[in-house]
Amino acid sequence: MYRWEYHRQTGYAWWIRRIAQCLNLYDCIRIDHFRGFDEYYSIPVGDETAEHGHWEPGPGMSLMQALKDALGNVNVIAEDLGFLTDSVRRLLHDSGFPGMKVIQFAFDSREESDYLPHNYEKNCVVYTGTHDNDTLCGWYKVLDPEDLKLSQKYMNNANTSKSEIHWDFIRLALASVADLCIIPLQDYLGLGSEARINTPSTLGNNWRWRMKQGCLTKELADRIRALTTLYGR
Predict the structure, then answer these.
(1) What keywords would UniProt list here (predicted)?
(2) Which of 122, 151, 196, 214 sits a CA distance of 20 to 30 A from 114?
(3) Which residues are catalytic, by number?
């Protein structure tokens, strides 16, 4: 929990130093749980459940403006996955930071999805999946039957073999209008759930996957090159 009033009084000096240090290490920074800058859920100290918590306002644009004033147009990706209120959407828009789209979240047959590529705006980053998702092949293997039908209808690919199916989703991401497209290496390699990076809220077999020598072949490189060239990536 941040003491936002204190940070305001200091002109967000700690945040500016923190982001500046990150920019010394990385080309781009992904800020998790971006919606917490709009509002966050506060739970009283000592409570064992969230039953008596309440929403409190975050720093909003005052923090974003302080960062821009001090550091210029910082290269930030805003993690805005999940349920978003109108005020969070406004903050994301006003900040100018790109939000995230995840292809695996697109095919929910129960409701309309902002993650379907035809709904994207240019200022966003599309992923086939993140470190918290299964690989494309692992996800597709256990996809709900109705969601599977939706994906096949959307991409007209009911006859694509399982050994090639990940390429259809990779192509879908690359062909989108998103300014940036990120494809995890496991998806390019067509690996299953054994190559998943992380399963949230679990302990044990996380963050252990390593690429084996020889995985990056000339054939794979040529295929990636062909698609990135075709879609202007």
Answers:
(1) Carbohydrate metabolism, Glycosyltransferase, Transferase
(2) 196
(3) 32, 79, 132
Q: Name residue, tokens 């996380």.
A: 206
* Rg, the chain, Cα only: 20
Distance CA 67, CA 12 (A): 8
Q: Which residues contact 89 (CB under 8 A, 6 or more apart)?
A: none
Q: How far is CA 215 from CA 120, 186, 191, in A?
A: 32, 10, 11
Q: Which two tokens stand for residue 132?
A: 């918290």
Contact 134, 189 (CB under 8 A): no
- Tens digit of pLDDT for each residue in 153-212? 999 999 999 999 999 999 999 999 999 999 999 999 999 999 999 999 999 889 999 999
Q: Which two tokens stand for residue 185?
A: 């290496």
Longest pairwise C-alpha distance within the chain: 61
Strand 76-78 to strand 54-57: parallel, antiparallel, or no bridges (unpaired)? unpaired
Binned at pLDDT 50, 70 and 90, residue 82 comes out as confident
Beta strands in 85-208 (DSSP E): 99-102, 124-127, 180-182
Reported as half-sphere exposure (CB side, CA atoms, 13 A), residue 145 has a value of 0
| Contact assessment for residue 156 and residue 143, using Cβ atoms and an 8 Å cutoff | no
Name the amino acid, one letter, at 210. Answer: R
**Which sequence spans correspond to the domains of the chain?**
1-97, 100-233
- pLDDT surpasses 90 at 111: no
